[in-house]
Design brief:
5-stranded mixed sheet; single chain; alpha/beta; 21 strands; Spore Coat Polysaccharide Biosynthesis Protein SpsA, Chain A; 3-stranded parallel sheet; 581 residues
């Protein structure tokens, strides 16, 4: 075990006591020789194991994390001595398993080494040490927040696979049954019975200390009375007076406020939330005053220029007739002279002549991509798997069918990746890989585990790609998110607002791509077959790129705005997932 920082809080003491109770000899490495440790714990100088300074990761807001050094210590300790290693936010729930090797999945795509066991000098540990040292420069101050985990689960996952050890991995329920985004539930007395039942068969439980630290939970205080964490403390002989406890309502508010701050920073594209943040956010959401024009429609003055070096872009379509907004997006590429190839399993799909239609079954069997459910008109589509298979087979450009090309030229790059507004992920909207790229091969290998889990297809595929990109050190290749998504998911209703068409025209002038975020429309209930409001930026785009779609009726911006406001309120709860450990 390893610790650097302030004196041990009750939460670290809980972790230590749980391993002492299990009968383990507990060795705690620290750079603080004066650290007070409980009976049964031996304090050792970490510099004797790993000489040099403590390596810290600095988040964009300047907050330091010791995660880098913790990973280096775990690999060095287990490689030299063998046996168990556990982070100080792991609680041992019973006797230590007797297997020679212990390592568990954190999720369907990631292996976590927060608790692990290997024989001394295991080759996989030597590989982890070497790989961690090689990746360390990518985590220097100024690196994006997603780089914090480069030496952790993505690295472990890659090395375990490279050494053919997938078969020894324990299931998620062994040590990570409670996931990072569920951390607030551990403080909620109403969730205790549920969590107790879920970990009944677990070997360990992870308290996700980094999440608590980022939310700034005061760990010198005990948890709310009657919550899941309170039960863990009682189990190992800890007790707190009522005045030494956190309030359940206060903890819930801190988690909610932390989520709000993450969202606010993302929308403001700022490292910190400034004092005038609310004024800025309210101003950005308020429709701007202005007139559309006497005729009600303002024609675009922007000409469509052809590309000097046309390229091929590919995408995938499933789920019924292709709609006007997808045709608009694809036409924006075709009008510049780029060849547009759409792969589909639907041979009866109505096909415009300016699109080159391809058989998706030539890439991957349809039963791995489309899964029909018993419920009428209900299905799952594993679009990310098709994307990865297509890019691995052919290489080149991938575009989602709701992405427009704003300029003429596509970048001349072997790899093109852009970050998502969700900083944990890479944007699936636009990407380019070379044919047969090793990252895609790795992702396709791990995708097999998702074949029988269609309920996870929407999210797991993108996470799998992000993990692969991080593991292969490609995060530095990622362009800023606004190169693909200059209008964020939160602000997509601006595209329909006639009063802001001029503002958008100016904002997007000289841009490269525009992700329409049609998934946001679907959540808001926007009818896909109706035309945009007259004079809106989308209306201008339809005049710029003729798709031959006769709109029977048009949307009213006032209705749209109400739909989007309702959607935003309804989605607040789902945004709990915005913070990871």
């Amino acid at each position: 075990m390893f610790w650097t920082g302030p004196p041990l809080s009750p939460y670290e003491l809980l972790s230590l006591q749980s391993f002492v109770t299990a009968g383990a000899r507990v060795l705690l490495y620290s750079s603080n020789k004066a650290l007070q440790v409980p009976d049964g714990v031996e304090l050792l100088d970490v510099r004797e194991l790993l000489p040099g300074p403590v390596h810290r990761f600095y988040f964009p807001d300047g907050d330091p994390s010791p995660a880098l050094h913790s990973n280096l210590v775990r690999y060095a300790a287990v490689h030299r001595f063998g046996g168990w290693y556990a982070d100080l936010d792991m609680v041992c729930l019973g006797n230590l398993p007797t297997d020679k090797v212990y390592l568990a999945w954190q999720s369907d795509t990631l292996v976590n080494a927060a608790v692990m066991k290997f024989p001394a000098r295991a080759p996989v540990l030597a590989g982890m040490m070497a790989e961690a040292r090689a990746r360390l420069p990518q985590t220097e101050r100024g690196a994006p927040g997603s780089s914090r985990g480069l030496l952790g689960p993505p690295l472990v996952t890659k090395l375990v696979h490279d050494h053919g050890l997938d078969h020894v991995l324990r299931p998620v329920s062994s040590a990570y049954e409670i996931q990072p985004f569920e951390t607030p539930a551990m403080f909620d007395p109403r969730r205790r019975d549920e969590l107790d039942e879920r970990i009944a068969g677990s070997d360990f439980v992870h308290l996700w200390n980094e999440y608590l630290r980022r939310v700034r939970i005061p760990k010198e205080l005990g948890p709310p009375k009657g919550c899941f964490l309170d039960g863990l403390f009682e189990r190992f002989g800890f007790s707190f007076d009522d005045e030494e406890r956190l309030s359940a309502d206060a903890v819930a508010a801190w988690f909610e406020e932390s989520i709000f701050l993450v969202q606010a920073r993302a929308r403001l594209q700022a490292r910190y939330v400034p004092s005038d943040a609310l004024d800025v956010l309210i101003s950005a959401a308020r429709p701007q005053t202005g007139k559309v024009g006497s005729a009600g429609i303002r024609e675009s003055s922007v000409a469509v220029s052809p590309a000097s070096r046309p390229q091929t872009v590919r995408t995938f379509w499933a789920g019924g007739p292709i709609g006007p907004y997808q045709l608009l997006a694809l036409r924006s590429f075709a009008d510049r002279g780029h060849q547009v190839e759409v792969f589909t399993f639907d041979r009866a799909l109505e096909k415009p002549s300016w699109i080159a239609w391809r058989n998706a079954a030539d890439i991957i069997p349809p039963d791995r991509i489309v899964r029909e459910f018993d419920k009428p008109a209900s299905s799952a589509i594993h679009a990310s798997l098709f994307r990865h298979a297509l890019l691995h087979r052919h290489g080149g450009w991938w575009i989602e069918p709701d992405v427009l090309l704003l300029g003429a030229e596509l970048p001349d790059a072997e790899i093109f990746l852009a970050r998502s507004h969700d900083t944990r992920l890479v944007s699936p909207a636009v990407m380019k890989f070379s044919q047969g790229h090793a990252t895609l091969a790795e992702v396709l290998f791990h995708s097999v585990s998702l074949d029988g889990k269609p309920e996870q297809w929407d999210q797991a595929g993108d996470a799998l790609l992000a993990d692969g990109i991080a593991a292969d050190g490609l995060l530095d290749e990622c362009r800023p998110s606004d190169l693909v998504s200059p209008i964020s998911w939160f602000d997509v209703e601006m595209l329909f607002d006639p009063a802001r068409a001029d503002v958008l025209e100016e904002k997007l002038k000289g841009g490269l791509f525009l992700d329409l975020h049609q998934d946001a429309w679907l959540r808001a209930g926007v009818p896909r077959e109706l035309g945009p409001p007259l004079g809106s930026y989308l209306d201008r785009l339809f005049k710029r790129h003729e798709v031959g779609w006769p709109f029977a009726a048009r949307l009213e911006y006032g209705d749209l705005r109400r739909w989007f406001v309702h959607m935003s309120k309804a989605s607040i709860e789902s945004e709990r997932h915005a913070i990871e450990s």
